[in-house]
Amino acid sequence: MEAFIPSESWIDAFEAQACVPGFEERLLRFARRRAAMVAHAGRRVDELYARELVQDALEDTLEGVLAWDPERVTLDKHLFDAIRSRTRHDYVQAQRFPHHAFDAADAPASLSAAVESSLSAQRGGASTEVAAAAERAVVEIRRLAASDADVLRLVDAYALGATKKIDVLKVSDLTSKRYEAARKRMQRLVLQLPTAVREAVRA
Questions:
Q1: What domain range is 170 assigned to?
Q2: What's the burial of 21, exposed, middle or buried (CB within 10 Å: 0-12/13-18/19+)?
Q3: Has residue 1 been placed in a domain?
Q4: How many C-beta atoms lie closer than 10 Å to residue 157's C-beta?
Q5: Are 112 and 92 found together in one domain?
Q6: What is the pLDDT of residues 68-101, one digit of tens each?
Q7: If you count Cβ atoms within 10 Å of the first and of the last residue's Cβ in the chain, which end, N or C, has fewer?
Q8: Whole-angstrom Cα distance, residue 202 to residue 106?
């Protein structure tokens, strides 16, 4: 697949609309409302979830993952539609699996938090139990993903302390599309972890 190379007029339109004062704040307010809907369906969400909805929509538009035609639709409507679509998907998933023991959509975030705790523990900032749980989770996921180079890159990025998508992309050298695909595969792998490991990571 060829890399998306926007025209100068496309870039001008994007910058002109994205740089309007309050633009991202309006997107974030909308994302928070949609996040509340997803939370009502049973999925655990937080402020980071809402911010990532906005950030992912912007980045995916810039990279051409989400096609935007400035001559047909305004940038804010395009992004609102993207956030609406993604939260609708999360809402449906949360309704379908309301009692799942481990929320697959939260798996990378939980793993990342555990890895960070592990790194902190090495500096004396967390318990050895937390560090051990994180280390075991990482080892198990590496084993399960032995033949999946992109998932291994994702794990390496989390282990280095990258938690936001933009930071993970920089560390892993993955494209946004490959990141999303690897993240989904990693979520499935996390669900294969022993119950004791999953619960320890969440603790």
A1: 104-202
A2: exposed
A3: no
A4: 24
A5: no
A6: 999 999 999 999 999 999 999 888 877 876 544 4
A7: N
A8: 10
